[in-house]
C-alpha cells in the first residue's frame, strides 16, 4: 500500500523523486490530467482568415455535437412510451 502511495505521489509531483517539480502555482498535476501540448493552439504567422476558418470549424463541430445530444435525448425520453406501446400491442389491447 505504501509503495502504491509513493508511486501516486511521484506521478502527481508531490515527492522528491517526481519528474515534475512542484512550484508555487503547480503542486503537481491532477490524476488523469493530460500532458501540456507542445504545439501552441494558434501558431505564429497564421492569417486572420485561417484563425477564423479554424474557429468556424470548431463551432460547427460543437453545434453538431449539441444536435446529436438533443436527438439522443429525444430518443431516450420516448423509450418508456414506446415500450408501453409494444407491450399493449403484444397483449392485443391496441391495434398497431
Written description of the protein model:
By secondary structure, the protein is mainly alpha-helical. Helix content is about 55%, strand content about 0%. The protein contains 2 helices and no strands. The model has no long low-confidence stretch (mean pLDDT about 80).
- Helix/strand-derived category reads mainly alpha
What letter string, H or E per element, gives the SSE order? HH
- DSSP strand content: under 5%
Helix percent reads 55-70%
Gyration radius, rounded:
26 Å
Number of helices: 2
Oligomer: single chain
Terminal CA distance: 61 Å
Number of strands: 0
The biggest beta sheet, please? none
Indicate the overall shape.
flat
> Low-confidence spans: pLDDT under 50, at least 5 residues?
none
Q: What's the overall average pLDDT, rounded?
A: 78
Write the layout of secondary structure elements.
Layout (H helix, E strand, L loop, with lengths): L1 H11 L35 H43 L6
Amino acid at each position: 500500500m505504501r509503495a502504491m502511495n509513493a508511486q501516486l505521489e511521484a506521478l502527481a509531483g508531490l515527492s522528491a523523486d517526481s519528474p515534475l517539480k512542484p512550484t508555487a502555482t503547480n503542486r503537481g498535476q491532477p490524476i488523469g490530467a493530460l500532458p501540456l501540448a507542445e504545439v501552441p493552439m494558434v501558431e505564429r504567422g497564421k492569417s486572420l482568415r485561417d484563425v477564423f476558418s479554424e474557429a468556424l470549424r470548431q463551432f460547427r463541430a460543437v453545434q453538431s455535437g449539441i444536435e446529436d445530444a438533443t436527438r439522443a435525448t429525444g430518443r431516450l425520453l420516448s423509450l418508456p412510451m414506446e415500450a408501453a406501446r409494444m407491450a399493449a400491442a403484444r397483449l392485443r389491447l391496441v391495434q398497431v
